[in-house]
User: Fold these one by one.
Assistant:
Number 1:
Amino acid sequence: MMQIFDTMQNRLVDLETRDPNHVSIYACGPTVYDVPHLGHARTALTYDLLKRFLMWSGYTVTLASNITDIDDKIIERSAREGISENELSSTYTKIYIDQLREFGVADPDFRPLATEYVEEMLAIITQLFEQGAAYEIEGHGVYFDVDSLADYGALAGRTVNELRESAQARVASEEDKQDPLDFALWKSAKPGEPTWDSPWGPGRPGWHIECVAMSLHLLGDGFDIHGGGSDLAFPHHENERAESEASGHSFARYWMHSAMLNVNGEKMGKSLGNFRTLGDALAQYGPRPLRLAMLQAHYRSLMELSDETMKGAIGGIERIDAFFRRMLGADIQETSIDTEAKDRFMSAMNNDLGSPDAIAVVFETINSGNAALDDKNIKEASMALTTVSELLEVLGLSKDTVDSDEEIDSLVSEREAARASRDFAAADRIRDILKDRNIEIEDTPNGPLWRKI
Ligand SMILES: [Zn+2]
């Protein structure tokens, strides 16, 4: 059985699903006012990997991941650029979707837009009023009363008083709010802003109610996993949970949070000036090395993405592709999976999505496959090939077509033959020919590997 780290219980727990053999997951998506950065990519990758692995393990999975298409930042930027909020958000939604696809992140089963769920949001706010958990301030909007939920702060692992102290220290509370921790469910219309009608006058939804409405509508009460980046745990997720529970809907059974990302030693963020976008990284390194680099860090650990990390990941992808080229060149066919390697991969992934250990199993299998081929052990080599193909598919790292170039392959074979007959002059000549074509050969204990340089 899979174990995941549940933020709410602050420990590893068995994944016991609401429905047998089905897992429902809601992962918070981006607010679309700019191009995606690497943190967005890491978050999306985490839930893509979770879904792939669960499906491979025999579950059916429903993954919903939203787009927040109305927000202060969207309103500000579209005003600055003199375009409509809708124009701005659809431009960046398209870029987000296109780049995630390029990155190899599969589309979720549902990608709801917040603005399409206003009716559902209003219904939940109405329920919160009925439960005495909401109050209205004329001219400001509707607020959630944190005192209405006995365990507000449980997800953050803090008491209401602790949270209240830091909230008071952080921001001067809005004039009429009953408590600095109370937060907006519905914001009254301001001039020039997009608005929707509501029983409390025209306005627009608060951020947290959007995700509550979308997740409950698409996945139902008591859905299995709520995920997102760790920066969303408080207050966004705490407040989502509060709204759902206080309105009478049981919310997520488990909470998963993927950690943040440092780029070349600095915290990922626009303000620091080292902002590197997903688009930049894809153009610079390609999707597979970027994906491998991210998967080689556990999703809950702060990731350091540096030129050094990327160099290692590019080398890793080359080793994978060289393995396939070599197996293809030797006409090795896929047969059956190596159950021992499969079991080790599975237990790594069952342990809170342990992708670094799972990837290590893949590279060990590549090494043993190469060694088997050296020994002309076709059966072992076939098994390794089958295993590597299948496991890479789970990680989303497989490639539809492996780079193959018969001419280069035959030059490499000629050079091998020359070396075998100790004709080193001929071998060096062929190496130079390859070098002129930007092909570098590396002689390894498992035979030569070539790569484009
Ligand atoms: Zn959310």
Number 2:
Amino acid sequence: MAFLDVENVVKDFGGLVANNDISFQIEKNEIVGLIGPNGAGKTTLFNCIVGYYKPDKGKIRFKGKDITGFKPFQTSREGIGRTFQIMKVTTGLTVHENVMVGAFLRTEKRAEADKEASEIIEFLGLSHIKDYHINELPIAIQRKVGLARALATKPELLMLDEVASGLNHKETEEMVELLKRLNVEKHITIFLIEHIMEMVMTVSGRVIVLDSGIKIAEGPPEDIVKNPEVIKAYLGERYAKGK
Ligand SMILES: Nc1ncnc2c1ncn2[C@@H]1O[C@H](COP(=O)(O)OP(=O)(O)OP(=O)(O)O)[C@@H](O)[C@H]1O
Ligand SMILES: [Mg+2]
């Protein structure tokens, strides 16, 4: 039994098939990357898994349980945490309060949520900005707050949608270290969408590639970078642009 089992998932937006019969599995403790050109269907696939969208066809199982059609708060309770490509943090709240919102999924006690938020904020090195309002911060930091909030829900599976986007080289390296620590020390399985190849290929044990809603490849990063179909659909174009 796979930890996450995605079977024949289809998501059709009125004729635009954003996810076309997608199947793959993720085992516990893996770090798996999801790559592909803009509009390939990566975020849509995340949204189908976490229940932001209901797939038109197919099944999603998490730890053996059929979670197809679950709502986001339900998949969150099952142990799936996610961050958003476009930030959905609550702008009226401070960083600390945003992270508390995540912690409230697991506890009703304010003092407990407060303590957990402080611990996570410290773990992510965000203590110096904990009292800032979200809209006062750069987007890249906002994404990190999104990560803190997702962590506060105590996920077993953490799904990250371009969490390193906008980070500089050093910050990207720090993010890689952070994800490895979450994986090794906190035993969190990670599934990440990323356009920064040096990051996704470094951190992932396995990579899945989407193009126009179809899964075109899956394998270890060293095979993916050599795969002619992947180079044609995505990597060649990006490398040519020098990204
Ligand atoms: N709610 C929606 N309604 C209609 N079409 C949508 C919706 N969400 C996504 N799409 C379309 O589905 C396709 C896949 O979009 P998606 O956001 O999943 O791509 P992506 O791989 O995450 O791209 P990017 O790398 O730019 O984030 C695109 O053509 C997009 O315009
Ligand atoms: Mg996307």
Number 3:
Amino acid sequence: MMGKQVISEVVDNGLCVGCGICAGCCPSKNLHMGWEENGDLVPLQIRDCPSHCRVCLEVCPFGPQSNSEERLAKLRFGKAVEIYQCQKIGWYLDTFVGYSCIDGQRDNGTSGGMATWMLETLLKENIIDAAICVRPTGHQERLFQYDILDKTTDIRNAAGSRYYPVDMSEVVARMNSREDERRYCVVGLPCFLKGLHLAMELMPRLRRRVIYTMGLTCGHLPNRFYTEYLIRLSGLDPEDVCLTDYRRKVNTNRAGNYQFRAITDDGRVGKDIPFSRISNIWIDGYFQINACNYCDDIFAELGDISFMDAWLPEYERDPKGYSMMVVRHPDLAEILLKGKKRNTCHLFSIPKQKILQSQKGGVHNKRTVLAGRLFRAKIKSIRVPHKRIDPDGNIFKKFRWQIETRYKIQRSSKTNWQRTKGKNMVEFQRSFLLLSIPLIFSRLSARVFRVLKHPSKLFLLFKR
Ligand SMILES: Cc1cc2nc3c(=O)[nH]c(=O)nc-3n(C[C@H](O)[C@H](O)[C@H](O)COP(=O)(O)OP(=O)(O)OC[C@H]3O[C@@H](n4cnc5c(N)ncnc54)[C@H](O)[C@@H]3O)c2cc1C
């Protein structure tokens, strides 16, 4: 007899984020990660599971423990001295903005290169033996993967954000193996860190060896088709491409003017795609993983430190980029301050309001509008994980057309791409034009409204 497990309870309900922690923890090695036809990365079952085993569900960030961030965070940070709590940011000791002053880290990093700075510092100072982060593979089938990196050059080569599905199954299994008694720092998106912390509760070896976790603030994760779309837009065939860079920094007047670049295995470089050309694809959630619709963690609340872009006018003007940080672990706060003293990083404290302001789009979507999405799920009897936010019918009413349009875009961008593989890009774009018009209109009217309220912003509107 088969018991409840992650495939029937999570994957089949469209709630898998593809973290792979279930596969890495499965005691019978019964799960492996693979591509679904719709472009999502999910666990696939090899054989029947023993009926009593629920490990995969217990470690799943969208499983029955889905509202456990607060409990896990309290366990980890609740006892620290002079720590504060914010409903949206989670626990925090301090909040910073800055950038790395170490050779090339800022240039090669997504924002200010501080995530790489922290990993390298931890390794150089012998606080960890290896970093667990995401590196390019050079293979078209899986462009990026999690790996265990124990050399600073490898950590540096892994810099940059990958808006691409990756999974932790192999690294979790390796960190939890009998032999591998090392100390690790793991980088991950909010849901990945939650799965990892759930696994650490179950597995003493993992708990002992994962010394720190570092979170990446997250708006949402798109599936594999997002990258295929960008590759086609750059004039190349996804089957030929072995390397992509989502955030090439260009010397313009804004950090947000980064570009996407794809390179084929025989060295051909595609046309660079500026973010401004695809911003609606990102913002409107094309190819988005469905589970992200039910996430309420923006700032990776379980990370000992979380990193994000400094999307604020005072920092955005510098195309080299700034990192913003929420620090929760006293050790990492101390390492940052030491770095500042030694001039290996440029760092200063900022009020938490600045952090919230820089991510106001994410906060609005994952907290306010989430209540409307949860209400929609309730009235349609759609199974969703239990969240910290309550369903709210008034929010649903207020944002109804926006919510419904985004769902339609997410669903049909995946089914359309699965069918056509973007062989006719003009056709693909045209088929979404009508759907997107209300969203584009709402963004434009919000801007106009802002300008009418604060006429000085007219200047900014044209600068963009
Ligand atoms: C899917 C996704 C969505 C994001 N959404 C937002 C957002 O809404 N707002 C915001 O401010 N910031 C967001 N970020 C974070 C932002 O893009 C930067 O990663 C962050 O600011 C750190 O920049 P840095 O220059 O300090 O890091 P870097 O020095 O560039 O180092 C980044 C580190 O993260 C690792 N990494 C890259 N991609 C992944 C991945 N997919 N999973 C796990 N580790 C990875 C790299 O291996 C590297 O070690 C997102 C990142 C991702 C991957």
